[in-house]
């Protein structure tokens, strides 16, 4: 496992009606984010690693804020999304796990 970047979470929500996928919108603070990397964060039950499925640049409606990065992630269950929502304005690691 190696850290390849850091992301500050702005928001997290379910992707459309698909309960197995979520979206994290945030600002990449350093490094690079690639499809297949993982978002890594620590919870009360231990460390969680969620696979990044897709990446999009997101612009705010006002256009005054810097653009954000939207990450489509695979959720293990809905508790992952709840935990991510609690991490708003928190820095998380982007990691690469060897296959």
Protein described:
With 99 residues, this protein is mainly β. Helices cover 9% and strands 61% of the residues. The protein has 1 helix and 6 strands. A 6-stranded antiparallel β-barrel has the order 1-2-5-4-3-6. A hairpin with a 2-residue loop joins strand 1 and strand 2. The protein is globular, with a radius of gyration of 13 Å.
Q: What descriptors fit this protein?
A:
six-stranded antiparallel beta barrel; 1 helix; 99 residues; mainly beta; 6 strands; Elongation Factor Tu (Ef-tu), domain 3; 9% helix; single chain
Look at the structure and give the mean pLDDT.
Answer: 88
CATH superfamily, please?
A: Translation factors
Taken together, the total number of domains comes to 1
C-alpha Rg, in Å?
13 Å
Return the string of H and E elements.
EEEEEHE
In terms of structural class, how would the helical and strand content be classed?
A: mainly beta
CATH architecture identity = Beta Barrel
Major β-sheet annotation: 6 strands, antiparallel, barrel
Contiguous runs where pLDDT drops below 50 for at least 5 residues: none
State the gist of this model.
This protein is mainly beta and 99 residues long. The protein is 9% helix and 61% strand.
SSE map:
Elements lengths: L1 E14 L2 E14 L6 E6 L2 E13 L9 E7 L3 H9 L4 E6 L3
Antiparallel strand pairs: 1-2, 1-6, 2-5, 3-4, 3-6, 4-5
